Structures are given as C-alpha cells and as structure tokens.
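Help! Submission page says 'invalid entity' but I think these are all valid:
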Amino acid sequence: MSENQTGNWPLWEVFVRSSRGLSHVHAGSLHAPDATMAVRNARDLYTRRNEGTSVWVVPADAITASDPDSKGGYFESAQGKSYRHATYYTKSEGVKHL
Amino acid sequence: MSAFASHDSATKQSAGVAITAEEIAETGGRAPEAVAQYALRLGDDALMLSQRLGWWISRAPELEEDIALGNIALDLIGHARFLLTYAGSAWGKTEDELAYFRNEEEFRSVRLVEQENGDFGQTIARQLLFSFYQYELYSALQSSTDQTLAAIADKALKEVEYHQDHAAQWILRLGLGTEESKRRIQDGLYYMWPYLDELFADEPLHDELEGIAVRPSTLRERTLERVTALLAEAELEVPNVAQARLSAAPRDGAYSEYRGYILAEMQWLARQHPGATW
Amino acid sequence: MTEQTTTADQAATTAEQQHFEHLISEDSRVEPRDWMPEAYRKSLTRQVSQHAHSEIIGMQPEANWITRAPSLKRKAVLMAKVQDEAGHGLYLYSAAETLGTPRSVLNEQLLSGKAKYSSIFNYPARTWADMGAIGWLVDGAAICNQVPLCRASYGPYGRAMVRICKEESFHQRQGWEILYELSHGTEAQKQMAQDAVNRFYGPALQMFGPPDADSPNSQQSMQWNIKRFSNDELRQRFVDMIVPQAEALGLTLPDPDLKWNEERGHYDYGQLDWDEFMSVIKGSGPCNVQRMKRRREAHAQGAWVREAAEAYAQRQAREAAEAAAAASATDAEATEEFTVVAGRGSAELIGA
C-alpha cells in the first residue's frame, strides 16, 4: 500500500452487518497497520452501540468503482426498461395473487 | 482516499442485553461474608487497572488505540462495579462507599495492576499478564456455585477474551516489529514479571470457598503455558528475574507504594464532599 | 487551468460544473468522486478537519477528570464520552479524507498549529462541575450546530454528522444530569455548578462563530448548502433552548441582558466578548499551549509503536509472499494446500 512507505497506517473501508439477514453496509473508514488490527479497530469504532453482528474491512485502494465521469451514461441502460417491473403489467388488475 | 458512502442502517443503535451493577444491587441478594471478601479482591483488581488504563485516553499512540484502550478500561470498570456492588451487599455498602471511602490498607488488589503505565510497551506487558490470568480465572469462575459470581464471570469473560486478544496482537507486533519496539516490550515484560506470582497465591479464604471461588494456584500452569507460547512466537524471552517478595500476606497488607497515589487522585473529590451524591 | 486549454476541455468542465450546480440547486448530495469546484473542496476540507481536530483536542479537558470522577458510574460515563469523542474525530477525519487529503497531512496541520480547532477547548476544566457544563452547554451548542449539518450537501460529511448527532444526545443529557445532581446537592456542590455555568456560558455562545455581519465565509457556505442557518440564527436557537433548561436546574445564566422579547418571540441576550474570542483563537487562551503540547507528545511518543506495527505488517506480507512462491515452486499438491489455507483466512475475515 502506497501510504505505508510514507510512515502512515493504510486506509481501510469498513462494512457492518447490523443484524442477521441484512447485508453488510458501508459505515466509514479507518487506519490500521494490517487487516487483523483493522477488523479489531472497526469493532471499537463502528459498533460501540451494538450496531453490528459482523464487520468487513477492505483496503481502500482494493476497491474498484464505476467511473464517476460517465455518471449519466453508465446507468442509462437501466432507465426506460419499465417492463422489468411488475407495475408495467396492468391487465391483471383485480385478479388476486398475481 | 475513502470514496464510499455510508448508509443509515449501519448506525442503528441499541443498549444490548447484559447484567448491570444496578441489577446486581437490586436482585443479587446479600453476599455471605467470605464471598464478599472474594468479590472485593476481584473487584479491586479491576478497579485499579481501569484507573490506570483510563489515563491513556487522549494519550495513546494512535487515535484508534485511544478507543481500544478506552474500551478495555470501560469493560474493567464495569466488572469492578458488579463485583464491588455484590461485595458491598454483605456490609450494607454501595460500590462508591467501597471505592471512595476505604483507606489504602483496606484495598485487596494485587501489586501488578497498581504498577505504573510507563510507555505503551510497559502497559501492554501488564495487559498481557493480567488479561491472560483473568481469562483463565473467569473461565473457571463461570461454574461457581454462587449464581451472582457465575453470572458476572460469564459477562466478564466475553470481554476479557477481547482484552487478551488485544494484548496478544500487540505483543506480536512489538516483539516482531522494530529493534526499538522489541527492546521496549522486553523491558516492559521484565518490569512487570516480578509481580506474576502474586496472581496465583492461594489464601485461607479460598479453602473456605470451595466450589465458589477459584483457587488461584490452579490457574498458574495454563496461564503461564499460554503466555510463554505467545512470547516464543513473538521472539521475546521469558524474563529471567526474581519474583518480588511479599512483605505480608498476599492481597492482605502487601501492596505497592503506588496505591496511595492512585487513591489520592481517585478519592479526593468524593472525600471532600462526604455524603454527597453526584 | 492553463491558457492552452482546448475548447473540448472547457466544454467538459462546464458540463461538470453544471452537474455540480444542478446537484446543489436540487438540494441533492455531492459524493466524493463527483467533480466539485476547488473552492468547495478546500472550504469543506478546512471545515471538516477543524471539526475533527476540535473533537480530538476536546478530549483533553474531560479526560483530565477520568481518574478523579467522584463516583464509579460517573467515571464510566465520562470514559465512554471521551472515547466517543475520539470516535467522532475519526468519523470526521474519514469524511475529510474523501476530499483527497490524507489524515496524516491533516494531523500535521493540527500539530504545526496551522489548523485551528474550537476555541472553547482552550479554557480550563477546573472542577467536576465543568464536566456538567461542558456536556450541557458545549455539547449542547455543538449539537445545535451539527443537526442542520446532517443535511450538508457533501454526502460523507452529512453521514458522519448523523452518526455523531445520534451519539451526542447522551453527551448533553449526562452533562445536564451532572449539574442537576450538583444543584440539588449540598451548598458547596450548588456553588460549584453555578461557577461552572458562569464560566462556560459566554464561550459556549461563541461556539457558533462571529456575528453574521463579521462572518464573510458563511454566505458562500450557505449557497453551497453546507451551512443551513446563519451563526446568529443558531445562537438564538440555542439561547432559547437553554433558558428553560437552566431554570429546571435552578441555576442562573450570567447575562444581565437576558430577557424574553415578546415582539421577537425570542430571548434577547447581551454582547459577547469577541476580542477575547479572537485572541483565544489566535493562541492566547488559558490552555492553548498545554493542549497542543499534550497532542504533540502523544503523537511523538507513539511513533515507535506505529512504526513497529507497520514493520510487522510488512514482515507478514513478505512471509506470505515467500510462502506463496515456495508453494508454487513445489508440486501441485503443495499448491493446493496453500490455496486452502489462504481460502480459510479470507473466510474468517468475511464470515458472520
């Protein structure tokens, strides 16, 4: 990790599962020398009030994100395809369990 | 660069379920005299160590560590409050009457927890010895026939597991980190090691409390085995140093010269206003 | 941007800028990877990091009382509170880092004295009652300031504020409760409480910043939807809140001009000492020197620990790489074994 060479602990992104049955959700970030300490620090920092049942930590620079510069275009394809949603089909209105 | 959004469901809070000092005061029942004496010993250890560790908050090597040491200090003061509340039930005293209005010679803590923080290495050395001992202690105390002690041990053990892990992680990092860190943690171990024996010293009290208290000598082998194995992994030496003599019976008359300073700081305000509520 | 910028670049920049302005006008949120004006980035970095520094320096006056708290319950509460403040500092540094400045640089700005923090923390916490006054008035003012910031246009800042506001509600209540116990206690305790309120009232009101007329940055900040209310509006809101709270405590607020104004529907309050405020900000508060010294010492004395942890991490990574190389050099069976071990490691990390 690049920051390591500058004498600072690297940055980790923290994901917390608030209860069983739910996904891990991004909570924030922290600095730690390695994954073992990161996951421990994450417990102390992000779950002091029972916010979590499980924690993930990921090196911040290991995350690849969609390109912010193409913001409109990238998600355009999902727009206008209303036939992917149940509400598109109206003929069955009033028919139960459909 | 941290470039990701956090989400509200990651901040859902709750108080959780666990025993509290207030519940022990209400429902714990009255501790028999000998049980109270025993609870006092464990409670005083937790209180003294919490008092020591609390000092680190705002002074730790990194902000994340302020929080970690703070967590351990908070767990310990929680244990102290359970144990002193339960002990006090025998004498009609509150946790605060026991913590703030006993004199030096009336405390029952071991010398190890009273030792100075020193540098981070010295503090971690003390954490190593004490948390590994406490882990064995509470593991055994879970099967005490005294329901209150067993319940306290059950809650405390889960927290001490974390203290133990915290100490172990740092022992590895300091032992295998840099030359300086190796020297400092080794110094810390030498400084704390002479107070190890006292943790495992049996007293007549323990004979009286068969099945209720844990006999300290029974914890020795397992604790030392695990401490020694960890030190080997961290490439640190087991200090070859004499144990500090006890000038009187363990926990009963023998105490460090730091105790007076600790209590002077801890108690002065409460004693300036006797009978006051806060 | 240089003179040689092409027309295409200019068009792109304009599109980005329009997108940003659109987000602001919609009262939507700007996220870290969005384009934002340099001035917006700079102003936010300054605000968020100063906020973080204030949390960290603000730990000190209260941490000083952890070892002396007069009951075990209060000791536990205070420890939890100061520990929360370290957490809040970290949430805010985390938000500030998304703007592109690493925490190490922000920390350096604090230690070198280049960055400012809230001037209130340069006042001494002399008595136990100060723990009450800090919780009630200082955290109270902070919450007043922070609640509207939960809707700040910059996403990570707003989210950090949501988390902080949730946690801080206990901070203010515990402070009020400390003062309540004191004001309903012995005469000496009550005096202690009144004295603390007398000392913290003015500085707490100044936490909202200079009067609107003297606060040139505020306007821009409001246009960007970072700030939602002016300094004076927030200060008024706070005064209106604490007057009845003080009455419930049985304590007075040290302001002879404090009285209900029927016409305005608000409390009028007296002039605050802004000369003092400016001089404390600039470094001549009672405790500026001590606060900075303690922060610098903690950082310097922790250096060997941070270095050790880093060295250990590098050693572990090196050993893992060597093990992997050794494994791939031997037969397929060994490779398989290593893969299993590595797989278990990651499962442990991700497991519930």
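Support: the input was valid. A stray whitespace character was the problem, and the output above is from the cleaned input. The radius of gyration of chain C is 25 Å.
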